[in-house]
Specification:
single chain, alpha+beta, Monooxygenase, Neuraminidase, Kelch-typ_b-propeller, F-box-like_dom_sf, F-box domain-containing protein
């Protein structure tokens, strides 16, 4: 009898020990090494296995370990126009029914000729597994809410969140202060929520993430199309905004830049209310230590070209770099056709450190959208995602408007091996992205 009780107690202790282990029978170090290799698309199912897995996968340290082990996935988050469904054929009876219905509802017949506004969605391109996915729209008490046009898409890699800030109300076409948050690692899977709004409604403004949870915004324009000098900062953990000192200059259509390891926020170029379309050559930098802005002259030489979309911040072993992606036509208009691609801001000294030939599909006057795939200093090779607005059909329902640049760090001779890879894009995801960012998860 005593032996039976002892065996039962030992079995119960073994069960309790196994329940505490991530994978029964394996040391947690080995179990963790296994779990971090599971692709992100299966994480929601993994949360249903047991409480220990659920707690682990919802904790930021799990995704930090994925980054450390090289198993993290690079997600390009983009605001794109949604495909417009083909309208049904118009017959005499359907046109008559539609017109009578509009008259009953008091719709002005003149307004019926106005084309419907294009709706926008959040697209996620998994650059690791080469897959495309469109997230559901945010919803609120009033039902489904449309994603604002031209809103800024910002990723917070430390917490697995995507922020959508500002832009235009798709119905009124006026700037909004709205902020939406999509949490990709929360308890209930990917879910939207409305966050604290900005203090100023703005669009086409500079935006950047500094550190793990601090988001800066500056400039842009208001509902009267006046360029703004105002700036503010958002604490994503506290869900609170704080007003910053105003910049020295008005800056509409400016570009926000931040670098890993640098606590400052940079705002490049833009134009004033009285000089629309003529982009400034200077920049302003906000230092949170001094709580003040400083101006840096001569950093953007292209008077008729906006830095928005065509530049990317890259942090590498050689320092902080600002990469430009300009077609030969744009460069010839400004400075004789140079091939500037990468600039270095070491000690505030800006110079061309390298150049690379870009594909013919980008080498024109068509708009492009650029984002760096990750910011790890030791990442090899450095990778940049570039998407154009002129994707060409392949005849199989896909497009050829996206590329990934893989570039090794400079060697002793100063050169950098560069390779461009075309990204096959489903036709439904070929719309030009107005804003994008990269989430490593």
């Amino acid at each position: 009898m005593g032996q039976t009780e002892s065996s039962t107690e030992n079995f119960q202790k073994l069960q309790q020990q196994q329940q505490k282990q991530l994978i029964p029978g394996l040391p947690d170090e080995i179990a963790m090494d296994c779990l971090v290799r599971v692709p992100y698309k299966f994480h929601s199912n993994m949360k249903l296995v047991c409480q220990s897995w659920r707690s682990l996968i919802m904790h930021p340290s799990f995704y930090q370990e994925r980054c450390r082990s090289g198993t993290a996935e690079h997600m390009v988050c983009m605001i794109q126009p949604l495909p417009t469904p083909s309208p049904p054929p118009i017959t005499e009876s359907s046109a008559s029914d539609e017109l009578s219905s509009e008259k009953e509802e008091g719709v002005d017949e003149k307004s019926c000729s106005r084309p419907s506004l294009v709706q926008h969605g959040l697209t996620i391109f998994n650059a690791t597994h080469q897959t495309w996915h469109r997230m559901m729209r945010p919803s609120g008490a009033g039902g489904s809410l449309r994603i604002p046009m031209f809103c800024q898409c910002v990723a917070l890699p430390a917490s697995g969140k995507i922020l959508l800030l500002g832009g235009w109300d798709p119905n009124t076409l006026e700037p909004v202060p709205d902020v939406y948050v999509l949490d990709l690692i929360g308890a209930g899977g990917a879910r939207w929520r409305r966050a604290a709004p900005m203090s100023v409604a703005r669009s086409f403004f500079a935006c950047g993430v500094v550190g793990q949870s601090t988001v800066y915004v500056a400039g842009g324009h208001d509902y009267q199309k006046n360029a703004l000098q105002s700036a503010e900062v958002y604490d994503a953990n506290a869900d609170e905004w704080r007003t910053l000192p105003a910049m020295a200059e008005e800056r509409d259509e400016c570009q926000g830049i931040s670098w890993e390891g640098d606590s400052r926020f940079w705002v490049f170029s833009g134009y004033s209310t009285d000089s629309q379309g003529f982009f400034r050559s200077d920049a302003e930098c906000y230092d949170p230590i001094t709580e003040s802005w400083s101006k840096i002259e001569g950093v953007w030489p292209y008077r008729s070209v906006s830095p928005r979309g065509v530049t990317a911040a890259v942090t590498s072993s050689s320092g902080c770099q600002w990469w430009w992606f300009l077609g030969s036509q744009q460069q010839q208009e400004e400075n004789g056709g140079g091939k500037e691609l990468s600039h270095n801001n070491s000690q505030m000294m800006w110079k061309v450190v390298d150049s690379a030939q870009i594909p013919s599909g980008i080498n024109g006057g068509t708009p492009i959208s650029v984002t760096a795939l990750g910011h790890a200093k030791d990442q090899q090779p450095q990778r940049i995602f570039v998407m154009t607005s002129n994707g060409g059909g392949r005849g199989d329902g896909t497009e050829e408007g996206a590329f990934i640049l893989e570039r090794e760090s400079s060697n002793s001779n100063g050169g950098s091996p560069t390779k461009w890879n075309n990204v096959t894009t489903p036709a439904g995801f070929s719309g030009f992205p107005y804003s994008n960012s990269c989430l490593i998860i």
